[in-house]
From TrEMBL:
Organism annotation: Aedes aegypti (Yellowfever mosquito)
Cytoplasm as UniProt keyword: yes
InterPro entries (alphabetical): ODAD4, TPR-like_helical_dom_sf, TPR_rpt
Protein's recorded name: Outer dynein arm-docking complex subunit 4
Biased composition, class Basic residues, residue ranges: 12-27
Organism lineage string: Eukaryota, Metazoa, Ecdysozoa, Arthropoda, Hexapoda
GO cellular component: axoneme
Main subcellular location: cytoplasm
Length: 270
C-alpha cells in the first residue's frame, strides 16, 4: 500500500530573496561639461557681435552665459569690456572686480579694472592697477600705454589746478662769473644718474611715483579698502629691486660706467 507523501517544510530553512541592485548615482561631470561648452558658444557668438560693434546684442549673450555660470571669468571680463564700449564704466568696474575676487592674478581683469577706473576719472587708482599689470606682465605694451595716458591725465588735472593759483614772483637771477668752477655733484645727483642708466625709460615712472607720494592731496585718494599710497610704495619697491638686479648684472654706479664694455653704458630696455 502506497503511503501519501507530505512536503514538510524544515524549520531552519531560510528563504533566499534576491535584492534589487542599487542604482549608481550619475556623475555630474557631463552636466558641467555641457554648461562650459554652452557658455563658450555664447561667448564666441558675442565676440562676433563685438567685432561689428553691435554691443547691445553682445551684452545679451554675455548675460546668458553668466546666468548659466556666474563664475565664468572670461564672460565677466568680456562683459566688462562691452560695458566700457556702451559708456557704462561703473558696471564695467563691477564685473572686473568680481573676476578679480575669483582670481586676483587674472591679467585681463586687472587691465579692465584699470581702464574702468580711468574712465571713471579715478586716475590715481587707475595708475596703480596699470603698474600692477606692468609688474606682472612687463612685456605687454597695453599696460605701458595705460601708465603713460594716466600720468598725462593726472598732470593735466594738477596743471589746471595750478593755473587758478596766483602767480609767484620769480627771484632775480644772479650772474655767475664765467671763471667759476663747477661744484662737484652731490651723492643724491650721482645716485639719480646711476638709476637713470639702470632703469632706462622706467626711471621716469619711478620719479613720478616718488613725487606722487609727496603730493599733499594724495591722502584724499586713499580709501578704506585700497590706498593709493600703498600701491605707489609697492611699485617703487619693485623698481628698486629691478634697479639692484641690473646693477649686479652690469655695475654703473659711477659716472665712468659708460666706458665699460665700449657700449656707453647702454642697458637693454624691458
Amino acid at each position: 500500500m502506497n503511503r501519501p507523501r507530505f512536503n514538510i517544510p524544515l524549520r531552519n530553512q531560510k528563504k533566499t530573496m534576491s535584492k534589487p541592485a542599487k542604482k549608481r548615482p550619475k556623475s555630474s561631470k557631463p552636466v558641467v561639461d555641457e554648461i562650459e561648452v554652452a557658455c563658450k558658444n555664447l561667448r564666441d557668438e558675442a565676440l562676433k557681435y563685438m567685432k561689428v560693434r553691435n554691443f547691445n546684442k553682445a551684452l545679451g549673450l554675455y548675460d546668458q552665459a553668466l546666468e548659466m555660470n556666474t563664475n565664468d571669468q572670461s564672460a565677466l571680463v568680456a562683459r566688462s569690456k562691452c560695458y566700457l564700449q556702451l559708456g557704462e564704466p561703473a558696471k564695467a568696474l563691477q564685473d572686473a572686480e568680481t573676476a578679480l575676487l575669483l582670481d586676483k592674478t587674472n591679467i585681463r581683469a586687472i587691465y579692465q579694472k584699470a581702464e574702468a577706473l580711468y574712465y571713471l576719472g579715478q586716475f590715481e587708482h587707475s595708475l596703480m592697477f596699470f603698474h600692477r599689470g606692468l609688474r606682472l606682465r612687463p612685456e605687454l605694451a597695453s599696460f605701458r600705454l595705460g601708465v603713460q595716458k594716466t600720468q598725462e591725465a593726472i598732470e593735466n588735472t594738477i596743471g589746471s589746478n595750478a593755473k587758478n593759483q596766483p602767480p609767484q614772483k620769480k627771484a632775480p637771477k644772479v650772474d655767475k662769473p664765467k671763471s667759476a668752477k663747477k661744484s662737484p655733484l652731490s651723492k643724491e645727483e650721482l645716485d639719480k644718474r646711476a638709476a637713470r642708466r639702470l632703469l632706462g625709460d622706467l626711471y621716469v615712472d619711478k620719479e613720478y611715483l616718488e613725487n606722487l607720494l609727496k603730493h599733499p592731496d594724495l591722502k584724499k585718494a586713499d580709501t578704506n579698502t585700497e590706498g593709493v599710497s600703498e600701491f605707489a610704495k609697492d611699485a617703487i619697491n619693485f623698481l628698486n629691486n629691478r634697479q639692484e638686479f641690473w646693477r649686479q648684472q652690469k655695475p654703473c654706479t659711477s659716472l665712468n660706467a659708460k666706458k665699460l664694455d665700449g657700449n656707453n653704458g647702454a642697458l637693454p630696455r624691458w
